[in-house]
């Protein structure tokens, strides 16, 4: 927070005629340096190369064009009590439409949708709205959130998504209170694998997309805890031909951005791999990537955890004590080793996302994530499980709060310029 970026490279505009009625930051108030705080194709049809005009993007998207009146009716005139969350883009509202006709229906009937409405006075603008339509309008994958449609009418800019009942991973990991309990080890590993598969799909030869803003608030969970990547406003086409990287302005989120990207503005798929390592470390530790409320020396999660991750005898000090020893020693070691590899200072030493997926799949197949005995050697952090059955049942963080899913809220400073 407040870091000064040594190098800022002006982004190459991905659209010829896309107006920019707002600046490009993510989910939070904008930071002057450029990092944001806090964005599939199962069919492997090729994505037309950018730059493309706004008209070409909208015509090529496989989603419905809604009128503003359609979405106003679906959300009951954007009633305050239907707000699911808020960010730099604007507010997200809960709505209902008919599954076949997409006409607004009464609350509780038809299908539930999440409607993101651009705040005209917000920090994120038309260009990011258009990027969402560009990528999610063509990309389909089980681990990418589904874009149902959009609205472009006068000054109105809205996006319509499938509703994700369990909200964001960020809230599940970090929300505190007597009514909530942390995600189990098995669920954390399930979510990490799903999110990894989403990134691997984006990086595939057919898709060639760099996500650029991988973080816990952009990972949404369905009713079965299947992870889906959302918020593609900062996504960028990967390098083509013999190019090794894409040069852009430094954008993303403090604590998640790869060091070489911060230093040079050179963006590669390995930049996303680093961000994945940060998120995996957050899931293992239950700590935020950047937390100024921690004691001195523990503000930056990666810097604090790295010395422990390199030691087989000390790595367990990083693990979230609230996990109550639900993991096996072998499984925890392998997950920690994977996080450390993804966080390599030199990008060439990081695995590809396909390799990450393979490692996480092997962990699950070996049942290394399911053993429910305390890890050996964790004398300070693990608690005995003998009285688990006698503990009073607390409401899970997966439960809906007052009838609403816990959607992402701003949490970290921005890196956009």
TrEMBL record:
EC annotation from Swiss-Prot or TrEMBL: 2.7.11.1
Region (Disordered): 14-56, 364-417
Coiled-coil stretches: none
Protein's UniProt keywords contain Nucleus: no
Biological process (GO), any one: defense response
Location of the Protein kinase domain: 78-363
UniProt cross-references to PROSITE patterns, sorted A to Z: PROTEIN_KINASE_ATP, PROTEIN_KINASE_DOM, PROTEIN_KINASE_ST
Enzyme class of the recorded protein, top EC level: transferase
Low complexity bias: start-end ranges: 27-47
Keywords: ATP-binding, Kinase, Nucleotide-binding, Plant defense, Serine/threonine-protein kinase, Transferase
Gene Ontology terms, MF aspect: ATP binding; protein serine/threonine kinase activity
Ranges of Polar residues composition bias in the record: 16-26, 371-390
Transmembrane region(s): none
Pfam families: PK_Tyr_Ser-Thr
UniProt keyword Lipid metabolism, yes or no: no
UniProt record similarity statement: Belongs to the protein kinase superfamily.
Protein name, UniProt field: non-specific serine/threonine protein kinase
Taxonomic source organism: Dioscorea cayennensis subsp. rotundata
Name of the encoding gene: LOC120273632
